[in-house]
TrEMBL record:
GO terms for molecular function: carbohydrate derivative binding; glutamine-fructose-6-phosphate transaminase (isomerizing) activity. The active site is at residue 365. It comes from Bifidobacterium tibiigranuli. GO terms for biological process: carbohydrate metabolic process; fructose 6-phosphate metabolic process; protein N-linked glycosylation; UDP-N-acetylglucosamine metabolic process. Catalyzes the first step in hexosamine metabolism, converting fructose-6P into glucosamine-6P using glutamine as a nitrogen source. This is Glutamine--fructose-6-phosphate aminotransferase [isomerizing]. The lineage of its organism: Bacteria, Bacillati, Actinomycetota, Actinomycetes, Bifidobacteriales.
Length: 370
């Protein structure tokens, strides 16, 4: 079943490119327009959506955070992300024009299911992004977009995460199409860039795995890790931190790079490992420069810096002890490649410590209790 791989997690990380590619297949009709898998909402109602609330847990919630940056940019409607278990207990503002997007790999997460039911009771529409055909969450939703990552066996979610980002992006482009907030050519341009992502992920798997493995060996005795990123790099940092704590049982904290000076920098002293996701350097934009100065600051306080950066970024190399390279890609799509070395890193650390990477202690693949 593992197809020659030492673990399901290893196999599934290597299926990231396929998961992204397959989730893009069959999304277009003969006219080239984007279509959803199941829609039980009238087009006019769909067009009138004026707010999105993503409800999800864990890794799926980080996919939702990534999608917020893209959907707000493309569709110009507010997107909120809420942990499903928090959502229900705070009297959220829901109207028939609110689209609640439930993201779930298993389709059986009880927290997410209860949030979805609450939203429908309040008269909102629910769209599911799900990896499991016929599971409860899509069955109870008004519309469905399936991720085609294939069955995910390892407890820690990997290929489902990249597929969730792609599906959420397709939802954003679909809304842009029906609301007319983007030109058809712009939409097609982004779809073409998405179609180029599987090869870029493959490049990371083929060329960076050795560097990642060496870094894991060097970091084996580290007690804690900080992960930081800005813009779409922020949810990637959160996800990298979650993977490492889940399977390598190492204390990690992910946070927005801009928060550094508001608190977390106090944790940095000699040898503290800090993982930083660096945005593209193209145009030497402020986003890039701000993240680089964050690395410089932690480096000045003795941090051991592991940096994920675009191939050839000279600034990233200047303050990095280790660099995991990614091929050039548009900023909004970079999470699809940036998360890959972090998935590998967590797996390597857990393997080196002798832990079962597929079945981490205390965790279940789908959490069917609240
Ligand atoms: C992380 C992980 C969990 C799940 C979360 C939601 O590796 O596996 O954080 O992402 O429990 O599960 P689903 O997506 O099945 O609703």
């Amino acid at each position: 079943e593992k197809g020659g791989w030492p673990s399901f997690m290893d196999k599934e990380i290597h299926e990231d490119p396929e998961a992204v590619g397959n989730t893009l297949i069959g999304r277009f009709n003969a006219a080239g327009d984007i279509v959803l898998d199941e829609v039980r909402i009238a087009l006019e109602d769909f067009k009138s959506i004026d707010k999105i609330i993503v409800v999800a847990c864990g890794t799926a919630s980080y996919a939702g955070m990534v999608a917020k940056y893209a959907i707000e940019h493309w569709v110009r409607i507010p997107v909120e992300i809420e942990l499903a278990h928090e959502f229900r207990y705070r009297d959220p503002i829901l109207t028939p024009r609110t689209l609640v997007v439930a993201i779930s790999q298993s389709g059986e997460t009880m927290d997410t299911l209860m949030a979805l039911r609450h939203a429908r009771e309040q008269g909102s529409r629910v769209l599911a992004i799900c990896n499991t055909q016929g599971s409860t969450i899509p069955r109870e939703s008004d519309a469905v977009l399936y991720t085609h990552a294939g069955p995910e066996i390892a407890v820690a979610s990997t290929k489902a995460f990249v597929a969730q980002i792609v599906a959420a992006y397709m939802l954003g482009l679909y809304l842009a199409q029906i609301k007319g907030t983007m030109f058809p050519d712009e939409i097609r341009g982004i779809v073409a860039q998405l179609k180029a992502m599987p090869a870029k992920i493959q490049w990371v798997l083929d060329t960076q795995a050795e560097t990642v493995d060496k870094a894991a060996k060097r970091m084996l005795n580290a007690h804690s890790f900080l992960f930081l990123g800005r813009h779409v790099g922020y949810p990637v940092a959160m996800e990298g931190a979650l993977k490492l704590k889940e399977i390598a049982y190492t204390f990690t904290e992910g946070f927005a790079a801009g928060e550094l000076k508001h608190g977390p920098i106090a944790l940095v002293d000699e040898g503290e490992p800090v993982v930083v996701i660096v945005p593209s350097a193209r145009g030497r934009n402020t986003l890039h420069n701000k993240v680089i100065s964050g690395i410089e600051e932690v480096k000045a306080r003795g941090a051991f810096t592991i940096v994920v950066a675009e191939e050839g970024d000279p600034d990233a190399e200047r303050y990095a002890d280790v660099v995991f390279w990614r091929p050039a890609c548009p900023t909004l799509l970079s999470p699809l490649v940036d998360v890959v070395p972090l998935q590998l890193f967590a797996m390597d650390m857990a393997n080196l410590k002798g832990y079962d990477v597929d079945k981490p202690r205390n965790l279940a693949k789908s959490v069917t209790v609240e």
